Amino acid sequence: MDKTSRTSKVTIYFFHIILACIIVFPLLFALVSSLRPLNDIFKYVAPVTLKTFIPNHITFEAYVNLFTKRGFGTVLFNTFFVAILTVIFGILFGSMAAFAFAKFEFKGKNILFAIVLFSFMVPFEAIAIPLYNLINDLGWVDTYYSLIVPAVANGLVIFLYRQFFIELPDSLIESARIDGASWWKIYTTIIMPLCKPITISAGLMLFISQWESFMWPLIATRSQEYKVIQVAMSDFTTEHATIWNEMFAATVIAFLIPILIVMPLQRYFVRGLANTGNKE
Fold first, then answer.
1. Helix/strand/coil (H, E, C) string of 129-186?
2. Of 162, 157, 20, which is closest to residue 101 (Cα–Cα)?
3. Per-domain residue ranges for the chain?
4. Which residue in 124, 135, 172, 224 has its CB near the most CB atoms, within 10 A?
5. CATH topology of domain 63-275
6. Whole-structure pTM value
7. Residue whose C-alpha is closest to residue 26's, from 255, 233, 230
8. 38 DSSP 8-state letter
9. Who's near 101: CB < 8 A, 6+ residues apart?
């Protein structure tokens, strides 16, 4: 390895370390602050020393208060319930629609697929009011339906599955049809088992999208009964004060759970996205 190449690698590693510090330090500060008493959180912020990231007195009061006084158990249940059902139905309907776009010929197919592509390019803010009016007319405001149903039909999920299904040989399906297999059997026993990376990628995208959703749950729900985690985190700021230690504790939970889910599955996620890069 020549000197120029070695210098280039050292430079890249240096910038990676700096970038990692920029990302990790705020998360570390949030974790440490969630374990401090409320009065100690900003006591060691300026100047920044080791005491900024090492608490003198560790307390789990903030976490206890989340579940005993803030009803965070219900919030977590709501968030998981909404996210998991969205993943299940989003994968089911998205893959079925993609299978139709990839392997069937029908009138208006290209126009419909163009609408699907356009759907995930439109900012949510542009459809929030019409969507709320529709949900209100259906009587779904402040229900699980309002949180789950609008997120099930995801254009990006359909696109990912379609790109994968296009690469599957038609002879595979034709041979199954000759053997008497129904379309449902072909879909469930032949097609879906072949697209595990795509399914994991789509599932993670749907899960993270729902886990991080704030604007729509804030619009569509009103009561504590259906509150999800991102909306619940706004409750720690009151008219006169901010309960920082509980806010940081909720933040730690909010970012830690997706990380624990994504990390073991990241290789499938990358593989699933890479498989959609093939040309027709």
1. HHHHHHHHHHCCCCCHHHHHHHHHCCHHHHHHHHHHHHHCCHHHHHHHHHCCCCHHHH
2. 162
3. 1-59, 63-275
4. 135
5. MetI-like fold (1.10.3720)
6. 0.84
7. 255
8. G
9. 109, 112, 113, 116, 158, 162, 165
Q: Name beta bridge partners: 242.
A: 237
Q: Please list, in sequence order, all residues whose beta carbon lies within 8 angstroms of the beta carbon of residue 268, skipping any fewer than 6 positions away.
A: 196, 197, 200, 201
Residues 193, 194, 200, 202: is their CA dihedral positive or negative? negative
Residue 136: both structure tokens together: 């209100």
Q: Give the separation between CA 146 and CA 131, rounded to whole angstroms.
A: 10
Query: Distances in Å between the alpha carbon of 241 and those of 61, 146, 238, 245?
Result: 18, 32, 5, 12
Q: Tens digits of per-residue pLDDT, 27-66?
A: 888 888 888 888 877 777 777 777 777 777 888 888 998 8
Say if CB 219 and CB 237 are below 8 A apart.
no
